[in-house]
Amino acid sequence: MLLVAVRDLVFGSKIDAAAKRLGVEVTWAPRNVPLSIVALERRPALILADLGEPSIMGELRAIRARVPTTRVIGFLGHLRSDLMDEARLIGIEEVLTRGQLAASLDDVLLKSSRSIDGS
Fold first, then answer.
1. How confident is the model at residue 119, as a pLDDT?
2. Whole-number Å distance between alpha carbons of 59 and 118
3. Is pLDDT of 117 > 70?
4. I need a surface site. Which of 46, 59, 85, 110 has the fewest CB within 10 A?
5. In this structure, how many other beta carbons lie within 10 angstroms of the beta carbon of residue 43?
6. Could you tell me the pTM of the whole model?
7. What pLDDT, on a 0 to 100 scale, did the predictor assign at position 112?
8. Which domains does the chain have, with CATH numbers?
């Protein structure tokens, strides 16, 4: 399962539209439940997370500690090099700027879908 943790409605709609067009199934993280709880319950193969969200780094640290096999792709604004460094320190496999993700969204979703399916 691909779990998406994005609160930005405009960017979320881009992800949703691309996923539907490509036939990639995504599950959206509920807004009222901590991401670490959702990850523990649902055991996603991959999480796509907006690293600019408040408290997301703490949630990702908890996920790394409790469900270390879950792969995480994080994205952030291009000016947030502090978050990029922090994300890498806690073991986020891939960190992209929002622009990089937007430009390669189809590839990221398709690659993620293939890795989840085991192909």
1. 46
2. 26
3. no
4. 85
5. 12
6. 0.88
7. 78
8. 2-108 (3.40.50.2300)
CA pair distance 6, 15, nearest whole angstrom: 9
Decide: helix, strand or coil at residue 32. Answer: coil
Query: Residue 60, class by beta-carbon neighbours within 10 Å (0-12 exposed, 13-18 middle, 19+ buried)?
Result: buried
Q: Which residues contact 71 (CB under 8 A, 6 or more apart)?
A: 45, 46, 47, 93, 115
Please check whether residue 75 is in contact with residue 92, taking contact to mean a CB–CB distance below 8 angstroms.
Answer: no
- Alpha helices (H) in the chain, listed in sequence order: 9-22, 35-42, 56-66, 81-89, 98-103, 105-117
Q: Render pLDDT for 11-64 as a digit per residue (tens, 0 to 9).
A: 999 999 999 999 998 999 998 999 999 999 999 889 999 999 989 999 999 999
Catalogue the long-range contacts made by 34-39 (C-beta closer than 8 Å, 24 or more residues apart): 34/59, 34/62, 35/5, 35/59, 35/60, 35/63, 36/60, 36/62, 36/63, 36/66, 38/3, 39/3, 39/63, 39/66, 39/67, 39/70
- Quick count: other Cβ atoms within 10 Å of Cβ 118? 6
